[in-house]
Design a protein that fits this description.
The structure is a homodimer. Chain A is an alpha+beta fold. Chain A folds into three domains: about 80 residues, Rossmann fold (3-Layer(aba) Sandwich), CATH 3.40.50; about 60 residues, Dna Ligase, domain 1; about 170 residues, ATP-grasp fold, B domain (D-amino Acid Aminotransferase, Chain A, domain 1, 2-Layer Sandwich), CATH 3.30.470. In chain A, about 25% of the residues lie in helices and about 25% in strands. In chain A, strands 9, 10, 11, 12, 13, 14, 15, 16 and 17 form a nine-stranded antiparallel beta sheet that branches. In chain A, strand 13 and strand 14 form a beta hairpin. At the A-B interface, helix 1, helix 11 and strand 16 of A face helix 1, helix 11 and strand 16 of B.
């Protein structure tokens, strides 16, 4: 393997995954004169529509993975559940950014929480649930309400079950298929926020302003930029995110989700909920409200370019178009200060992310009322 | 031919031409959930790298043109020199937007000037030069200095020769290959400006703020947004552009180049230099300084969508990267408020447009000093 550390215009980026994140990464790369090779097993993969090269093969097809990685200057991914063996094969043929340590950390909730705890970053109380006995012990220790989550492959609320009282514990364990799990104490948060942070190959770090996230049916519904928190707390959130990417020797964009707690008369405090080693749905507003979007930022980072400014030039509210929400496209297209982004997916299945839109507002004037 | 008037997300746009304008149109379409089919004879056509479908065939290949137009919901183009017969074939199979009248008008300098004059839009003095006798008569009438230009296929200063004194006339005629030509009186302009205007299928019109253009070696070098003109003149320039697209029953984005003259003690006045029935190099700044770029605006117009707001959220200076200018990419990428756009072209030949960058400034603070 002889690949350049810095990938100049004309270079090629390999992207694992052909969904909307891969698609928006490919378009950001194209704007910088870089071309992309999308690797995805799915019959429909709309990222391939905007990339110069595509491979449709399984994530465990060692030959196809090797050919793919040989054809590109760097490999990145749009989802954290890249199998370890897949990452290992790819890394033999091209740099994988973010690296395999970040991937291994973020794809297992226990490894992630242990990493955060060992770096003195506060999280919700948690316990490893390897079997039924461990579950009962964990419920006794952490108490209820609490949430049982599979260690791996959970997203958008999948692989999760709430435990309202100790009597629910076994039903919850059954509900998640008795998979290796984590029990997390319920956190009475006031806000959910996230920070999109990037780290370059030289260690440079840039973090966007924290945003406030509202979920609906466990799927991100809206992100408000900026979050309704004071500057001190926003700086603290950015510092935590910077701490995480530095400690992981990370290269690329990461999404860091945090809870804001306000307990009694003490000031608010932050807990990290989870990290995503990739561009993140709660950073889509950066496309329209910042000089450099999270997608361009990720491409810059993995190509060894200087990071772009994360400066925000207006307030913004991003809202997802889930399933047949997308049928409202024409009304959104008629709004004067709304940027519409559709993902080119053919079928609007329930729960499927079909697009998003970002409403832009002068500084200080974005609404925060939940409709 | 049965094609929808309004092209919904999922629809397909045919684009004639595979250069940077087609590429940026294809990316703008993809953001709106539309996909593109690029038709281009060139071996290298970087627009194909970001489009789902591509045909590499000659512009006079009637079968390939018919198949191409059958496969799409609407046809548009990135250059005005689409042969009339090509346009006629395409129009039998799909709507062509902007339409064939606009194309015929803009691709012949005499037809264009006659159109403008007949609609009471001021231009430089001009005369049709069909042969040597007509040339000598035209030089006598219009005087010198004047400029002899081929009626067709001129761009970036190609097909032009200056006539400094009547004695130069025949040499100039030889220089342009004695092609059918137009003689234009030299205009002592103070500024060159342009307006990017769009018209929807329902007649809605939206014009961006006029910009000031600086050329180098007959190629656009820089565009300053906004132009250094007062609001009254800017409104007049926008009104002229609106007048033109309305009179042509135009659909899509048009670039209108104008001269600002200041003669004696009278106020400034505007002459139209030329029109381009397509997205225009002097509108690239809209990608980074406006809610909706000229590329998205063109896609909206030809798909029958409502036009986007042309509002500008900052000042901007766009500069082209010609030939090996592009070698400066790394320094530009390190500038915090600079958006870099590279076109994915392999070879940086002299005079070739390889990319552009747009420096963004708070309102009122863009520089206007010519470096």
């Amino acid at each position: 393997m002889s690949k350049p550390a810095i990938i100049a215009p004309g270079g090629r980026i390999g992207i694992l995954g052909g969904g909307q994140l891969g698609r928006m990464l490919a378009m950001a790369a194209a704007e910088l004169g870089l071309n992309c090779h999308i690797y995805c097993p799915d019959a429909e993969a709309s990222a391939m529509d905007v990339a110069s090269h595509a491979t449709r093969a399984a994530y465990d097809d060692a030959d196809a993975l090797a050919r793919f990685a040989d054809s590109v200057d760097v490999v990145t991914y749009e989802f954290e559940n890249v199998p370890a063996e897949t990452a290992r094969i790819l890394a033999e043929h091209a740099p994988v950014r973010p690296g395999v340590v970040a991937l291994a950390t973020a794809q297992d909730r226990i490894v992630e929480k242990n990493f955060l705890s060992s770096h003195n970053i506060a999280t919700a109380p948690y316990a490893d649930v390897a079997d039924e006995a461990a579950l009962l012990k964990a419920v006794a220790e952490i108490g209820t309400p609490s949430i049982l989550k599979t260690r791996r492959f959970g997203y958008d609320g999948k692989g999760q079950a709430k435990i309202a009282s100790p009597a629910d514990a076994l039903a919850a364990y059954d509900a998640i298929g008795r998979a290796p799990a984590i029990l997390e104490g319920f956190v009475p948060f006031e806000l959910e926020i996230s920070v999109i942070v990037a780290r370059g190959i030289d260690g440079e770090i840039a973090a966007y302003d924290p945003v406030e996230n509202i979920h609906k049916d466990h799927i991100l519904d809206r992100s408000f930029a900026p979050a309704r928190i004071d500057k001190g707390l926003a700086d603290e959130a950015r510092a935590i995110a910077a701490h995480i990417v530095a400690d992981l020797d990370y290269v690329g964009v990461m999404g860091v989700e945090l809870f804001v707690l306000r307990e009694g008369t003490a000031g608010p405090r932050l807990l990290v909920n989870e990290i995503a080693p990739r561009v993140h749905n709660s950073g889509h507003w950066t496309q329209d409200a910042c000089h450099v979007s999270q997608f361009e930022q990720h491409i810059r980072a993995i190509c060894g370019w200087p990071l772009g400014s994360p400066e925000r030039h207006c307030d913004a509210v991003m809202e997802n178009l889930i399933g047949d929400d997308v049928d409202g496209w024409a009304a959104l297209a008629a709004e004067p200060a709304t940027a519409l982004h559709l993902y080119g997916k053919a079928e609007a299945r329930p729960g499927r992310k079909m697009g998003h839109f970002t409403r832009l507002y002068p500084f200080g004037s974005a609404p925060h009322t939940i409709r």
